[in-house]
Design a protein that fits this description.
The protein is mainly alpha-helical. Helix content is 77%, strand content 3%. Strands 2-1-3 form a three-stranded mixed sheet. The longest helix is centred in the middle third of the chain and has 34 residues.
């Protein structure tokens, strides 16, 4: 019986990370721990920034949005991924798969542009410190974050819309632990040419625009830092950017490795394992990177702990 989009497939089966039975339970516990740390870390950072007035600055406004994206992003696929480790058959409906695809892409693309906004924020802070408060006004920060979400929505809608036009016949086993573009294209029994063009254009824009903006920002930042005469001043300027540089390297590096490696079903198996890094590990590491390497966050956390201890004594 055909579905609304002339597709014979009414549900998909997620193959998961591996089919080795002896690894299912250990992997379940490992990824459950990663997911718990991700939720606690990002939710904790969201709460800390919201409650502490000292962190109500443009830099932490973007960090707040980044934590929100990571929190939602990991929750799009992690519960289903965990189910795959303990269930014999991990089915997902056609509608559920397309919904997961849309939100996965929405948050991934939004994160690309949120990291880009953070790079611009660092550029203004270091290269034009006297005009920082004026340049990075509340209106500008809101516009930049809104633009990140709009780009995420447009990119996700383009990919998902093109995916809905495909027909899926008999093959319904997705060689992945989530509904992603490339594994789904392998299952289509109709031409995927339009989808491949859209992938080339949309992914090209969403990689080139953020990469160019981030690279340009850090060229100017590096130039400004090298002109600082004092060693302490240079060290302080570098420290304000180090967390962001690590986050960018992890996200863009692992994501690019996943998609650039794709060329055949064999490479899809390899890419499936490499994608764990940017889908599971990066959202977990971001709050740790920004909290452990950030003096303001550590001070704010210490104040919260002291306040809680004082309340307990009363």
């Amino acid at each position: 019986m055909l579905t609304g989009n002339d597709s014979l497939v009414t549900e998909f089966v997620l193959a998961g990370l591996t089919d080795l039975q002896e690894l299912q339970l250990p992997l379940f516990h490992l990824f459950l721990m990663i997911y718990i740390v991700t939720i606690v870390g990002n939710f904790g950072l969201l709460t800390l920034i919201a409650l502490n007035s000292h962190l109500h600055t443009p830099m932490y406004y973007f960090l707040f949005n980044l934590s929100f994206i990571d929190l939602c992003y990991s929750s799009v696929f992690s519960p289903k991924m965990l189910m795959n480790f303990i269930s014999k058959r991990n089915a997902i409906s056609y509608v559920g798969c397309m919904t997961q695809l849309f939100f996965f892409l929405f948050f991934v693309i939004s994160e690309c542009y949120m990291l880009t906004s953070m790079a611009y924020d660092r550029y203004v802070a270091i290269c034009n410190p006297l005009l920082y408060r004026v340049t990075m006004s509340q209106q500008v920060c809101s516009a930049l974050s809104l633009a990140a979400y709009v780009m995420g929505f447009v990119g996700a809608a383009a990919h998902t819309g093109c995916m809905l036009r495909l027909t899926f016949c008999n093959a319904n086993v997705i060689n992945h632990y989530l509904c992603d573009i490339l594994p789904l294209l392998q299952l289509s029994c109709t031409s995927t040419y339009v989808n491949e063009v859209v992938v080339l254009v949309v992914v090209g824009i969403n990689i080139s625009v953020p990469s160019f903006t981030i690279l340009t920002s850090y060229i100017f930042i590096l130039t400004s830092i090298l002109h600082i005469k004092s060693t302490h001043g240079r060290s302080k300027a570098f420290s304000t950017c180090s967390s962001h540089i690590i986050a960018i390297s992890l996200f863009f590096g692992s994501g690019a490795f996943m998609y650039l490696k794709y060329s055949s079903p064999g490479s899809m198996d390899q890419g499936k394992f490499s994608s764990v890094f940017y889908t599971n590990v990066v959202p977990m590491l971001n709050p740790l990177i920004y909290s452990l390497r950030n003096k303001d966050v550590k001070v704010a956390l210490r104040e919260v702990v002291i306040t809680i201890k004082k309340r307990d004594k009363l």
